[in-house]
Amino acid sequence: MSSAVQAGGPARPEPPAGPRKSVTGTRTVLVAGFLLPALVLLGALVVYPIGYSVYRSFFDQAGTGFAGLDNYREIFTDEAIFTAVKNNAVWVVLAPTVTTALGLIFAVLTERVRWGTAFKLVVFMPMAISMLAAGIIFRLVYEQDPDRGLANAVWVGVHDTFTESSAFPRARPLPVHPLEPGGGGAFVTRAPVSAGTPVLLPLVGVAPDRMPSDARPARTPAPDPDGGITGTAWLDFTRGGGGKPNVTDPQELGLKGISVEAVKDGKVVAKARAGADGVFTLPAEADGAVLRLPAANFREAYNGVSWLGPSLVTPAIIGSYVWMWAGFAMVLIAAGLASVPRELLEQARVDGAGEWQVFRRITVPLLAPVLAVVLVTLMINVLKIFDLVYVIAPGSAQDDANVLALQLYRSSFGTAADLGVGSAIAVLLLLLVVPVMVVNIRRIRKEDRR
């Protein structure tokens, strides 16, 4: 026979001689040629900057003298940089956790409403806004002035609903007026009052445009026929001048709503409020008493919360971050929720489990891989946070809101630039990101093996 036959079947042909190829049949040299441009770019844009940053971090500010670990030591001894480290720790713990939790809640709840798609669209819309634009938006939202800042406008509105505010926070008497300080911010008459003689309580210090809109010209009342005490509380100020002190001139307005108390032997025996023309009437028990304008009449108007002050600036900025990224978390979690077997949820409900038990014992465990992806992604993201802090935090509170990425910029390009310290901060950021990336890579490989 011209060809040998192996036992059990025909002989297999020998592979042709020639250069070895990869699994896909592509020559190794050709693969290297395609990868080379990408590797060059990766080395120039990633590997070289990382290596040079590590190298530069061991030199002094001028870059000529070897500094050893001094730059790294300064990170934990310099107050501003150490504040940035602490704030980054707050960011890493708080921002991803809150964002992921809100995303989970939104994803679960929107499955149960008819307009869930529209709600998801609204929640996800902030992702289309750049960090710079979001920072400008929230810088306005957190303005201290309630007339400009939305957060304080809402806060002041709620506060004033339950706590009455004064309309005359800076009102005060002049030395020629029959009033004097009574302690605690109140004002009292210089002498006791008597029935039959109208009491004049003039004040100044209220801008005419801040007067109540329905205030009317002040007038001096007639004596009370029942023996009570009558009087007038008004703004003793005439626009353009020409008015006389302690006289209710025609152009002067009454202090509508101001509270008047009659005090005898340290006890309040009667109270009254002035009308639109400033006139008030106290019962006969007030005869011989000293009249007092309580301090509540002059309490400064509530001006809201200092959102961008030293104590709240970091939580306020984290709030803006959550506003931006909650939609991202919601979309990813909703995609994972769509793959959850519905029969497991229905079976649990049939077995008597409540909605909270189904959510805690079944939904959350099944979504654990997705939640881990979202959490790790956000952790890496917040370690690099810069834009929001730089734009939202005012100059007076920027040191209190400082984070490592912002401090890296300030140390490297500020007025007293120190590239050694800046490089050390960059290396520290890299070291903080690497463990999170390693955990993420291990999780991905574990998922692939399933």
Automatic annotation (TrEMBL):
Record's InterPro entries? MetI-like, MetI-like_sf, UgpAE/MalFG_permease
Residue ranges of domain ABC transmembrane type-1 in the record: 85-440
Q: Does the keyword Cell membrane apply?
A: yes
Q: Which CDD domains match?
A: TM_PBP2 (cd06261)
Q: Which GO biological process entries does UniProt record here?
A: transmembrane transport
Subcellular localization, per the record? Cell membrane
The chain's coiled-coil residues are none
Gene Ontology CC annotations of this record: plasma membrane
Report the PANTHER family cross-referenced here: BLL4140 PROTEIN (PTHR43227), DIACETYLCHITOBIOSE UPTAKE SYSTEM PERMEASE PROTEIN DASB (PTHR43227:SF8)
What does the sequence similarity comment in the record state about its family?
Answer: Belongs to the binding-protein-dependent transport system permease family.
Q: What is this protein called?
A: Sugar ABC transporter permease
Q: Which organism is it from?
A: Streptomyces tsukubensis (strain DSM 42081 / NBRC 108919 / NRRL 18488 / 9993)
